Every structure is written in C-alpha cells, then in structure tokens.
C-alpha cells in the first residue's frame, strides 16, 4: 500500500477509537458523522458531539485533502512543489464543567508533488483552573510516549508547544502547553514508519490522559462565578484559534469545510473589559501559571 | 496649530460628544474613562459602557500613537518612511437586545516621517434581524453626508464597505455594510481640512443614525430563540474582527493596549456546529441579505 494511504487508514481507525472512548466517558451523547468533499480533491469525516453529560461541544475531525499549495506555505516546501496532499486528525473538546480542562490534539502528515513529506502534531491542555498534580500527570504521560521514540522529543517538543500555544498579544500561554512538532522528516535515527507510529501513539496517549482527567474532575461542584471565568478563558481560546492557529489558517486559506475548521470554537465564550481577578484567588493562581518555560514535571 | 494636533483635538471632542449621546439614549450606565500610554509614544482615552439599559457592552476609543511602521504596512508608504503617527476614534456597540443592531464606526488620520498622510474611516451596521426600512434609512443618511463632500464618495465607499466588511470564509457580509474608505489624500477636489471635516461629519452622522435606530427597536419584545441567534451572529462578528479587521491587526502588531483593541468583542458570543435556520424564518431572511452589492436605497 502507498504510504499516504497507510497513514490515512491509520488516522481513520484512530478517529473511531477516540470517538468511542469519548462517548463512553460522556455516557450520554454520541458523535455525529458528516462526510464531506474538498473543493480541489479528497475530503474528510467530521464527527461532533454536543450537549453531552460532560462534553458540551467537541469535534474529532479526520481529513485527507489535496490541492494547490497556499502562498503562505511556499517558502516551506521544495521550490518545484505545486500540489500538496495532507491528512490529519484534529480534536478540540470543550467540556461543560469549568473544572474539566479543554483539550486539543492534532496529528498530520503532509507531502508535496516534489517529494517533500513530513509529520507534525501536538497535544495541549487548557485547564480553566490549573491543578498542579494534573498538569504533572499530563506532562509525564506525554514524556513517556515521546521517550519511546526519541528522548530528545519531549524537551524539544515541550518548548515548541510553549512557543506555539501562546497568545502573543496577551503575553500568556493558552494553557499548560504539552507538545508541538512540525516538519519532522525521517532521518538516520527515525524512519517514516516510526513517525507514523509516533503519531498513532499520541492518539492513544490522548485517550489515556484525558479520560482520567475527565473522571477526576467531573463531579466537582462549581458556581456561576467559576462558569464566568470559564467563558472568559474560552474567549482567549477563540483568540488563539482565529489569530494564530496554523491549522485554522491553513483550512481557511485552502477553502476547507468551514464548519469542520471552526468546530474548534466553544458553544459559548465571553469577553469582559478589563476583567480583574481577586488577589489570592484560584483564578489568579491559574493566570500566574500561564507562562512559558514552566517545568511541570518537578 | 500643527495639523495633526488639530485632528487630535477634533477627534477628542467628537469622542466626548458621542459618549454623551450614547449615555443619554441608554439612560442608565455611564462610560468609564481610562487614559493610557503607548509603548513607543502617545496614548489614548478608552471609554467603555457596560450593562446599561440598552447597551450591553460598548467602547468609544480615542488614540493618538506613534512608533515604527509595522512590516505589513511598509508597502503602503513612502520607501523612506520609518515612523508613523496615527490618531483615530473607533467605536463598537453591542446592545443587549437582539432587535437592536450592532454598530461600528472608525475615523482615522495617519502620517509618516516621510511626508505621507491620509484619512480613512467607515461606518457599518450589523443587524441581528435585518429590517429593510431601517437599512434604507441608514444608507440614505450616509449618502447624504457623503454627498456634501463628493457625490462619488457614497457609491465608491459603499462598494468598498461591501468588500471590506466581508467574512470571506463564510461568504457573507458582516451586516448591511455602510461605507469604508482608506488612503484618501487631499487633491485638487478636496483639501486636507475638508477631509477632516468629512471625518467629523461622519461622527455626527453616527449619532444621527444610531440614536433613532436604538429608539425604534428598544421596546420590541424578544425570546430566548432571538437571543440565541444574536449570540451566533456575534460569533461571526468576533470572526471578522480577529481574522480580517485592519484596525485590530494594526493594534496587535504595533503592541497597542490590548483591552482597548479588543473592547470590540461582545460580552457573550456563541458557535454552534452546523446551525441551520428555518425556511421562511426571519433568520433566513437576514441571511439572504448578507451579500455584497445590495442597493439598500431602492
């Protein structure tokens, strides 16, 4: 089988597995299934869950599209390249409870008609209220998966996530980060096949970290003021996705399916002018940790 | 007096006049006043109203800042230009009632240290529910003001607004448009002084059109389903401001005061996956009119 077909198949299987795990943890709602075609070639399967017991809005999107390389990517590919093929899974989950973090995961494979090909991806967690023990658990699990492939991956990709998942205009990270990587090509130390296995391992890790985090927080009580803070933090999430996110930008510029691209936005978000947090509050503690370079493991 | 000082003074007076008129129509809340300094020079006065009788969140921002010309503007100015001075008023009003349209207005003056200078601005209306008669009134008043300066302005600037206030990725206009103009320099037909008068005339027109529109709609009853539609339309407004709006982009790239730049975002917004409107509904009617090239006058 063609390598790109193999990646597509592996990603589709991973999509099904993830949706099944999320439906089980939610216990009420099910993922819809919409198959769609891309204007220039290929298409995808968008799966969205809404108004669950736990998951207010979440999407697990698979796509495998082709087309002309958009202008803003030209500098990153072989000068002879004209057409791209891209396949990936992209997930954003917005739980109803402010005690459960927002999570994002993406793995993707990209190739051009001039022979370039690479993998990219990432997972990052956006707690509305940061709990140090949970942050440590999340990062430890990411490190464990990375270490199975290359012990340089976790420190390198953790720093990359700090830089990438960053609202420059707010001077704050979107959450506690995680890992992010892009343009990773096979070399003497890792094969293309192993890069695919790494991507699939991350989809397993996604389930392995998020299900326990949901379970640990789902029964915690919350008040309207916790909810208010959640909507404000979701507003920052919207800012990141619309201003900086490369996947969103790529989708908009390549005329992707808009409902699939913007499934990442929450059902409700809020912006208050000059919102201030109280000294000594949990909100202030969370804000104090939205910084680059924090070592969550120790 | 230096021309730029004259523009600043006129804009500050206009800011006070507009806030007074909006406070009167609201009848409850008052505008806060925050003076701030820009990192490279100058500053501004941000005035925000929140939780009024009518106005849920609105900002009337005055600024007069200077600094290094950001990279994305380099192609638009004299090659020798290195520093800019920019002053303007920027307004976005989000009423609580879905029966009252969102409105935006901006007038601005820009000059560089290489002798470039120009005016820009615009007003556009974003009804949650389009009412043809009100759209006609709004556009007629804009035309009347434009015609006093140049009879080419309204048709030219109306088309410019259709192109500018457009969510490309949604293939829909943000609302019923209005006027938009940029890089307008004095020439044989209009002086710099008259361009300033045009900008000030627009600030008067803003009050003259919005106050009657608020009064006409403020007592109309609405249901939770009207409110739901409003939050979705506000989501589109957020998309425009974060993805396309030049003022927002300029503010973010020149390290402006973030709370002043993003005061344009509503207190609450919503995104639903694949939201559909009912055939024959008012929501469907509004969607059918979110297109370029509509002649609202006839």
What does this 3D model show about the protein?
The structure is a homodimer of 298-residue chains. Chain A is an alpha+beta fold and 298 residues long. Chain A has one domain: oxygen-dependent coproporphyrinogen oxidase, CATH 3.40.1500. Chain A has eight helices and ten strands. In chain A, the strands form two sheets. A seven-stranded antiparallel β-sheet of chain A has the order 1-2-3-4-5-6-9. In chain A, helix 1 runs parallel beside helix 4 and helix 2 packs antiparallel against helix 4. The model of chain A has no long low-confidence stretch (mean pLDDT 96). Chains A and B meet through helix 5, helix 7 and strand 10 of A and helix 5, helix 7 and strand 10 of B.
List the secondary-structure elements of chain A in sequence, H or E.
HEEEEEEHHEEEHHHHEH
Average the pLDDT over all residues of chain A and give the rounded result.
96
- Tell me the major beta sheet of chain A: 7 strands, antiparallel
**Category by helix and strand content of chain A:** alpha+beta
Q: Which CATH C-level class of chain A is it? A: Alpha Beta
Low-confidence stretches of chain A: none
Query: What is the CATH topology assignment of chain A?
Result: oxygen-dependent coproporphyrinogen oxidase
Largest interface: A-B, 31 and 31 residues
Estimate the helix proportion of chain A, in percent. Answer: 25-40%
Give the assembly state of these chains.
Answer: homodimer
Taking all Cα atoms into account, the compactness measure Rg of chain A is: 19 Å
Q: Spatial order of the strands in the main sheet of chain A?
A: 1-2-3-4-5-6-9
Q: Total helix count of chain A?
A: 8
Tally of discrete structural domains of chain A: 1
Question: CATH superfamily of chain A, called what?
Answer: Coproporphyrinogen III oxidase, aerobic
Shape of chain A from CA axes? globular
